[in-house]
Amino acid sequence: MIYADNASTTKISERVLAAMIPFLQEQYGNASSQYSLGVKSRRAVEKSRQQVAHALGAMQPEIIFTSGGSEGNSWILQSVSSLYCKEPIHIITTAIEHNSILKCCHDLESRGVTVTYLPVDGNGCVLVNDVISALRSDTKLVSIMLANNEIGTIQPLAEIGVMLRERGVLFHTDAVQAVGHIPVNVVDLQVDFLTASAHKFHGAKGAGFVYIREGLGLSQIIFGGGQEYGRRAGTENVVGIVALGAALEESVAHMTSECERLTNLVQTTVEILEVKIPDILINAENAERLPGILNIAFPGVSGEAMMHLLDLKGICVSTSSACNAGKDEPSHVLMAIGLNEEQAKSSIRISYGRCNHKEDVKQITLAVCEVYGKIVATKMAGSQ
Question: Using CA atoms, how far apart are residues 220 and 142, in angstroms rounded to an integer?
Fold first, then answer.
C-alpha cells in the first residue's frame, strides 16, 4: 500500500509510539492523583505542555489540551459568543474554512449571531483589505484558518493579526493543518486563539490543544473536576497528550528538511502528470502552499471514481476533506476558488508525508495515468 492522504491523518512515528507505551502499561496513573504513579502522569502532561508552548512561542498556562481540532474550534466560537451574549455579535470567517468552523457559525446564526463569510481569490487566499473592510462596531471575533486542508493555501495571518490587535478584535486561527509542518509562532501571528490536532503531525488521534492568550477569559467547555486550569474538566488523556508533545517536538526538529523534501515530491508529481495528461488543472497552483499537498482536477473524469480505482491498486488518496467523504456534493473549498461543479467533482488530493519517497511518486503517477486512461476509454466506449 502507498499512503498519500497525510492531510487526512498521519502515521504515528516510532519515537512517538515508544513514548506512548509506558503510559499504556506501567505508568497508567490518573494525572490528578496525589500518589507517585499519578504524579508521574502529571509530570508527563506538563512536559508535553512545555513542548507545545516552546514550539509555538507561547507560555505553558496558555496551552489547554483537548480531544482535537473540531472540539477546539467549537469551543472558541461558542465561548466568545457566550462571552458577549448580551450584546450584538458579529463574526468574520472565510468561505473555505473547515466544517467545524462553518457548521458552528451556522448554528450561531440560528441563535442571533451575524456572520460574514469572506470570499477568497482563485488561489484560495483571503485578501487582507477584505477582512478590514468587513469589520463592524459589533465584530467580536475573526476566525481564519492558517492553511487550508484541501488545497494547502497559507493565509496572510500575521498582517491580519497586527491590524486586528490594533482594533481590539479577537483573532482565532484553525491551525490544524499547519502545526508541525510550517513554522507557527503565536506572537508573530498576533492571534488570540489557535487550535491544533495531534494526528495531523504523527501523534495519536483523540488529542489536540487550544492556545488561549494570557488574560483572555473563556467559559469552561466541560464542567467537573477542574482539570486543565479549570477550563476543561475530565481525566486527562495522558497517553494522547504524551504522544502529542513528542510528535510536535519531532516534527519541528525536522521541519526545514522535510518541507524541502515534500516540495520536491509535489513538484516531481506535477511535472510528470502535466506531460502525461496535459489537460489537468493544479488547484491553487500559484498560492503559497503547505509543502506536501497537491490538489488536481482531471476534466471530464470523476475524482471519486479515480480515488476508488487507485484504492484497488493499493494507493490511498482523497477527493476532499475526510469529514466530507462519501457525500455526493462538490467541495465547498474548490467551489469557492472558482471551479464549477464538474471541475470540483473531478479533483483528487494527493498529500505526501514523512513516509513517502521518490519511488512512491513513480508508482502514484503511473497509477493515476492508468486509471485516468481507463475511465476516459470507458466513457468513450459508452458514448458510441
Answer: 21
